[in-house]
Amino acid sequence: YATGAVTGGSRVGGLVGNQTGGGSIGQSYATGAVSGTNLVGGLVGMMDSGSSIDQSYATGAVSGTEEFAGGLVGLQSGGSIGQSYATGAVTGASRVGGLVGQLQSLGSIVQSYATGAVSGTDQVGGLVGSQSGSSSIEQSYATGAVSGTNQVGGLVGRQFSGSIGHSYATGAVIGNNGVGGLIGQRDGAGT
Description:
By secondary structure, the chain is mostly beta strands. The chain has no helices and 32 strands. The termini are far apart.
C-alpha cells in the first residue's frame, strides 16, 4: 500500500505509475491525493493488456490537467479490473472517470464501483469517461455526481464501442451536449 500524496507529469499513480507486461496488483490500496498532467490514476496511472487489478482500492482525490484521469486507473488499455473501487473526487479535462478515465482494447471491469464526484470537460463519466474497443463493464456501478460539458454520463461519458451489462448509476449528472443518466453519448457499436 501507499499513503502519501503523489505529484508528477504523465503516467502518475498513487501506487504504480505505469503497469505493463502482464503484471498483477492484488489486495492493495493507495490513500494519497494524486495529481499530474495526463494518465493519472488514484492507484495506477496506466495499465496495458495482460495486467490485472483485483480486490484493490484508492481513496485519494485525483486531478489531471489534460487527458485520462481516473479514481483508480487513468488509462486501462486492456487487462482486467475486478472487485475494486475508488472513492476520491476526480477532476480533469478529457476522458475523466470515477474509476477509469478511458477503457479500451480488450479491457474489462467486473464487480467494481466508484463513489466520488467527477468533473471535467469532455467524455466524463461516474465510472468510466470513455469506453472503446472490445472492452466490457459488468456488475459495476457509480454513485457520485458527474459534471462536464460534452458527453457526460452517470456511468460512462462516451461509449464508442464495447459492452455494458448489469451495471447502474445513481448520481446527479449535469452537462451541455450529450448528457445521460447512464451514458452521455453512445455510438453505433456500443451494446
